[in-house]
Amino acid sequence: MNKQSKWRLMLIVIFVSGGLLLVNKTQAWLLAKTDERANQFTVGKVTHEIEEKFDKNLKTDVKITNTGNTTAFVRVKIIPQWLDKTGNNSVGLVATDTYDIVFNEVNWFEKDGFWYCRQPVMSGEQTAVLVKSAKPKEQLAEAYQEKLFNLEVITQSVQSSPIEAVMELWGVDPSN
Q1: Which residues are registered as beta bridge partners of 148?
Q2: 123: which of 20, 27, 132, 144 is 20 to 30 A away, CA to CA?
Q3: Which residues of 61-70 are buried (b: 16+ CB within 10 A; e: fewer)?
Q4: Burial of 156 (0-12, 13-18, 19+ CB in 10 A)
Q5: What's the pLDDT band for 91 if we cut at 50, 70, 90?
């Protein structure tokens, strides 16, 4: 190896060593000077409660309260049924001419058997009333005379954002 090759090799070793030393010093400085930050994530909790008023055979003011910690869309399945004295569904399918239900079709819409609230409900807030009133008809057939009319309300809610997730889960955009 001639003298010029040795110099080149020595310069390469010096530059590489210097570069490695500089990288290590920079990392040490960044670690010593960078403030630690803790990212806090809160898991969204989607829960709800049904609120309704009763007066004998009359059910009114059915609405849903968002008891979770995030804004959510709500949908409701309404199941009218006739129960015997022991609380069992004794009639089977309920004839629609045996009861009257008045829905709020301004703030809610029906699709495929579910009622969808048009507006997302913020945490701690309530939906608009869905069922204004539900009651059995005055003149009923003999088969219903000893029965109790029951309006079962089944609710589901889902975090409102992103709307694509709501549409994927329910197949509908409640806000439209």
Answers
A1: 83
A2: 132
A3: ebbbbbebeb
A4: middle
A5: low
Q: Which residues pair with 121 in a beta bridge?
A: 72
Query: What tokens were used for 32?
Result: 């010593």
Nearest to 152 by CA among 90, 55, 61, 82: 82
pLDDT of residue 131: 96
CA distance 102 to 122: 25
- Tell me which DSSP letter residue 64 carries: E
Measured at the CA of 164, the angle between CA 161 and CA 170, to 5 degrees, comes to 100
pTM score > 0.70 for this model?
A: yes
Name the E strands within 3-71. 48-55, 58-66
Q: What is the number of helices (H) and of strands (E) in the chain? A: 2, 8
- Look at residue 92 and tell me whether its pLDDT is greater than 80: no
Q: What is the pLDDT of residues 148-157, one digit of tens each?
A: 888 899 999 9
CB count within 10 Å of CB 53 equals 12
Sequence-ordered list of residues with C-beta below 8 angstroms from that of 165, at least 6 positions apart, any chain: 158, 159
pLDDT digits (tens, 9 = 90+) for 122-135: 999 999 999 999 98
